[in-house]
Amino acid sequence: MTSDAIREQVLAANRAFYDAFEALDPVAMEACWEDGDGVACLHPGGPWLHGAAAVQGSWDVILGHTGYIEFDVQVRGLRVADPVAWVTCVERIRAGGAGGVAAAEVAATNVFVLGPQGWRMVLHHGSPVVRGSPGGA
Asked: Domains along the chain?
């Protein structure tokens, strides 16, 4: 049984990730991630990225080319197998730039490890939710 305090720590780390994304803040985003070769990220429609440099580089590009982004994150699951935890969620996203504002839904899995600096992300995997498809939301 996982304590409520640990669950809250993991959820706070998950929220910090989305706060950094909404703020378009590459320094805050980097602080959310474990630093090392073991991290990985799969953005919707993108290639698998491995290692801190590749993952942070992708966030630098995304954050630098996004005019506005807002998340309504609905946590669907939280599991802790100390020192690892994972959060499954649906990201309801509104994003925009010079071309206007668009909306999308992404199913995401965020995996965290507990280290000296607290819970840090080691994997973010996002996949678009397609309405009306078998198994779609």
From this structure: 4-128 (3.10.450.50)
CA distance 49 to 43: 9
- Residues 20-58: pLDDT tens digits? 999 999 999 999 999 999 999 999 999 999 999 999 999
CA atoms of 137 and 133, how far apart (whole Å): 8
Q: Is 51 left (phi over 0), alpha (psi -120 to 50) or beta?
A: left
Is-contact 68 95, C-beta < 8 A?
yes
**Buried-state track 121-130, b at ≥16 Cβ within 10 A, e below 16:** bbbbbbeebe
Give residues with Cβ within 8 angstroms of 31, minimum separation 6: 16, 20
The residues, any chain, with a CB within 8 Å of residue 117's CB and separated by 6 or more, are none
Cα gap 68→96, rounded to integer Å: 5
Q: pTM, whole model, 2 decimals?
A: 0.91
